[in-house]
Amino acid sequence: MSGRPLSERVLEGDPRAIARAISLIEDESPAGADLIRRIFLQTGRAYLIGVTGPPGAGKSTLVDRMTAEIRRRGQTVGVVAVDPTSPYSGGAILGDRVRMQAHAGDAGVFIRSMATRGHLGGLARATSEVALVLDASGKDVVLIETVGVGQDEVDIVRTADVSIVTMVPGAGDEVQALKAGIMEIADIFVVNKADREGADRTIGTIEAMLSLEHFDQGTWRPPILKTEATTGRGVPELIETIDRFRTSTADAQGSRRRARAEWRVRELLGQRFLQHVERNVLGAGEFEQTLDRIAERHIDPYTAVDEIFRRSVGGGGNGKW
Cβ(103)–Cβ(69) under 8 Å? Predict the structure, then answer.
């Protein structure tokens, strides 16, 4: 094992260092946070592509084909595939790397499956930091595949530079059910398995939904593409559309990344404050006692939180802020 700092090896693109860094981040280790501090200023060069959609839409196969097409164009790729969490091991079930074995020997591709570990929103809590590691390691493009999501699982829009919503034929009713959620975050719609009956009806349903929205002159209107991921049909056109989106929204990319930074800072602040409360403010078992008092209607949640907050910021705990 090299005695050189892990951050240096990550910046050089060492696959073992990348894998180790991601493990530290997934474990929410202090060493993982320190690593991000060391590499953050070297990030921001990779383009993050999010692929989301309902279960069975063929996202993994589509990401596999997209990886191959991007590699044909001479760019390096990092893939973050978020899988459901095993109730037994806590790990990822049927990691998507199984579907991407064609890239196993390609030094220009790094694939990592991650478990959600109970985090809602279609992604794992550490997904954005893992993307930073891949960015810092020199990957030109980072593909982020979510778990099969429902209408309120839209974290991908807070993580990726472009969000691709993948649908399948015969999902007309499902399109309507998803309308209030992931259907509204799409920058590009993909109707995968387009060789199946009903592909045109699915496109028509999405078009009808888009017709209800107003798009100003010059504003990007999400296009709808057909793909057959198993054969690769339509994938080159998808990559070209992503390139067009990147070009046409270049001026807005800074504001989009700023919004992502705001969301992440707020999330980290919430986590850090809760950790402070649990470690330094409340005594052993006090949190559980507070929950019991609320359940027994001896105190309401707002009053309980107010009391904890006052102790937290007023130095009334057993530690310092």
Answer: no
Model confidence, pTM: 0.83
Q: Which two tokens stand for residue 121?
A: 């929103």
- In this prediction, residues 264-284 reach a mean pLDDT of 90
**Ramachandran area for residue 56 (φ above 0: left; ψ -120 to 50: alpha; else beta):** left
Residue 321 is predicted with a pLDDT of 37
Q: What is the number of helices (H) and of strands (E) in the chain?
A: 11, 7
Question: What is the spatial distance between Cα 239 and Cα 190, in angstroms, rounded to a whole number?
Answer: 12
Cα-Cα-Cα-Cα dihedral sign, residues 289, 295, 297, 302 = positive
Which DSSP category does 92 fall into?
B
> 47-52 and 109-115 as β-strands: parallel, antiparallel, unpaired?
unpaired
Strands (E), the chain: 47-52, 77-83, 109-115, 141-145, 162-167, 188-191, 224-226
Of 57-61, 138-142, 221-225, which range is least confident?
57-61
Q: In this predicted structure, which of 102-116, 118-132, 206-220, 299-313 has the lowest mean pLDDT? A: 118-132
% residues pLDDT > 70 (the chain): 81
Phi-psi region of 232 (alpha: psi -120 to 50; beta: other; left: phi over 0): left
Exposed/middle/buried for residue 314 (C-beta within 10 Å: 0-12, 13-18, 19+): exposed
Q: Quote the DSSP letter at residue 187.
A: S
Q: Report the percent of the chain where pLDDT is more than 90.
A: 54
Tokens 């005594």 belong to residue: 283
What one-letter code names the amino acid at 137? S
- 108 by Cβ neighbours in 10 Å (0-12 / 13-18 / 19+) ranks as middle
